[in-house]
Design a protein that fits this description.
The protein is α/β, with parallel strands linked by helices. Helices cover 50% and strands 13% of the residues. The chain has a 5-stranded parallel beta sheet, sandwiched between helices. Helix 2 runs parallel beside helix 3, helix 7 (157-167) crosses helix 10 and helix 8 (172-179) crosses helix 9. The chain is globular.
Length: 220
């Protein structure tokens, strides 16, 4: 059973998502919150698999709530998916930096929404190659954050190669084919790189790969 926390200040949005999720046999909404502060408290109480968090909320916004969840070892199992009305914008990029596993636009089709919840629950990033390219074009090409490349020297050559392929939006199976290794070995390289770079998930790994200069837009 996939356990979901809904955090949005609009009751109608929450009720719509809840009705959709409760109709599924493998998904359960464990709690709802109307602001980021309440959402944090409920995340700690219920330890959901997925926290759907709106970006713009009162008290504590979605970006700060995401940052606090990502920084709390007790909430390591909680995969944050941010909700937005506007598609890819700087708020979304900041949420990915803060540790979100991905994002959804509120006008998403129901079947795509349900698929996204299941993807996030598995711990996979909700970043298609097209979204990765938009991130690169709009935000990652901005000046790098100081120190973002510090962990690169800790990576092996194979780990660096795997991270570069993740940053291009490839799946584990595609990375395995490209590197002529098994999917399990590809996943191992990626997980070790995430640990060394202190990346919470693949979404954050993508951001770090470009910010650190491991991958640049022109060779993506």
């Amino acid at each position: 059973m996939i356990r979901v926390l809904l955090v949005d200040d609009q009751p109608l949005i929450r009720s719509g998502f809840r009705a959709l999720l409760d109709a599924e046999d493998d998904i359960e909404v464990v709690a709802e919150a109307a602001d980021g502060s309440e959402g944090l408290a409920l995340a700690g109480k219920h330890l959901p698999d997925v926290a759907l968090i709106d970006i713009q909320m009162p008290v504590i916004d979605g970006i700060e709530a995401t940052r606090r969840i990502a920084a709390d070892p007790a909430l390591a199992q909680v995969h944050v998916v941010v909700l937005t009305n506007y598609g890819l914008d700087e708020y979304v990029f900041n949420a990915l930096r803060a540790g979100a596993a991905g994002f959804l636009v509120k006008d998403i089709l129901p079947e795509d929404f349900l698929h996204a919840i299941r993807v996030a629950a598995r711990g996979d990033a909700l970043l298609a190659p097209s979204i990765t390219r938009k991130l690169i074009n709009q935000y990652v090409t901005q000046p790098r954050t100081t120190g973002t490349g510090a962990g690169l020297k800790e990576l092996t050559n194979r780990e660096r190669e795997a991270v570069a392929l993740v940053a291009q939006g490839l799946s584990n199976d595609q990375i395995a084919d490209h590197m002529v290794i098994s999917p399990t070995t590809a996943k191992t390289h990626i997980n070790r790189a995430m640990t060394k770079l202190h990346a919470r998930d693949r979404a954050q790994l993508v951001v770090l790969a470009y910010e650190s200069g491991l991958v640049t837009p022109r060779n993506s």
